Amino acid sequence: MAVTRKSMASPDETRTFDDTVFQVVKLGGATVTRSTFQPGWRWSKNVGQVAESDFCQVHHVGYVVSGTLHVKTNDGHEAEFGPGDAYEIQPDHDGWVVGDQPLTSVEFLGTVM
Fold first, then answer.
1. Helical residues (DSSP H) of the chain, grouped into ranges
2. What pTM value is reported for the model?
3. What backbone torsions phi and psi does residue 43 show, to the nearest 5 degrees?
4. Is the pLDDT of residue 112 over 60?
């Protein structure tokens, strides 16, 4: 098929844990993930203890749909992302939701050609 359509309303997979919901859709060689993080969520607090690491080791490429994300790298660089901001975040960072609104972001893994 030359064109594929999938809805995030009916994802291939939904993962829910610790103030987070991940909705995953697979398209060819790519994965699209819509993530919702509740206010107060922080990677080092909510995931780092389980991962036994102070910093996230994942390379992220995506954009913020709603809410605010603050990121701090292990070498001290900081950035904040809000609705409509596209981002690339290299491994070795901590991230957290700013304010009292949930953060919803969409990320892309792999390529479809």
1. 43-46, 48-51
2. 0.89
3. -55, -50
4. no
DSSP 8-state symbol, 75: T
Helices (H) and strands (E) in the chain, counts: 2, 9
The domains of the chain are located at: 13-109
Q: Which residue, among 50, 34, 41, has the nearest Cα to 70 in the 3D structure?
A: 41
Share of the chain above pLDDT 70, in %: 96
Residues 6 or more apart from 77 whose CB is under 8 A from it? none
- The per-residue pLDDT for 1 is 59
In the numeric block, which tokens belong to residue 84?
A: 């409509």
* CATH 2.60.120.10 correct for 13-109: yes
* Among the listed residues 73, 75, 79, the one whose alpha carbon sits nearest the alpha carbon of residue 43: 73
Find the length of the chain: 113
What token pair was written down for 47? 């995931």
Q: What gap in Å lies between CA 71 and CA 24, rounded to an integer? A: 23
Is there a contact between 94 and 54 (Cβ–Cβ < 8 Å)? yes
